[in-house]
Amino acid sequence: MTEDYSGLTQLGQPTALPRNPEEAVLERVPAPHQDLRYCVRFTAPEFTSLCPLTGQPDFAHLVIDYVPGEWIVESKSLKNYLASFRNHGAFHEACTLDIAQRLVALLSPAWLRIGGYWYPRGGIPIDVFWQSGEAPQGVWIPAQEVQPYRGRG
């Protein structure tokens, strides 16, 4: 069976980065093997946003795991969406949870979790974790295994 991807607006063509997450277009495609349960992982080790108060850059290592239902996220649109946070001012918690909620709304996955491993701000790393519920039985979901921040000493 050949899928129709004609409705996609970013894949396979030059695409400008969105100015902010609200303008970013996230796209989806039908999940392959909808009869199987499997985990999809996206890792963004160089995620960047701005502190909403100081305008200084914040950096995170994001890990997004999900078990698809009918849809998977189109990866170029996800990359552009994540890049749109570069000039967006929001606290770590808001960025992490907004990404999770937007993906859940788009995909209606069987399960999703996100780990936001943020680098220190003011001497304290702020890590943010969320998941949509219990992981489905019988699906191999590896540990995120992002090393916690270790200061000197």
From TrEMBL:
Enzymatic class: oxidoreductase
InterPro entries: GTP-CH-I_C/QueF, NADPH_dep_7-cyano-7-deazaG_red, QueF, QueF_type1
EC number: 1.7.1.13
Annotated active site: 51 (thioimide intermediate), 58 (proton donor)
Annotated substrate binding sites: 73-75, 92-93
Region described as Disordered: spans on this chain: 1-21
Pathway(s) it belongs to: tRNA modification; tRNA-queuosine biosynthesis
Keyword Phosphoprotein: no
Catalyzed reaction equations: 7-aminomethyl-7-carbaguanine + 2 NADP(+) = 7-cyano-7-carbaguanine + 2 NADPH + 3 H(+)
Similarity field: Belongs to the GTP cyclohydrolase I family. QueF type 1 subfamily.
Name of the molecule in the record: NADPH-dependent 7-cyano-7-deazaguanine reductase
Source organism phylogeny: Bacteria, Pseudomonadati, Pseudomonadota, Alphaproteobacteria, Acetobacterales
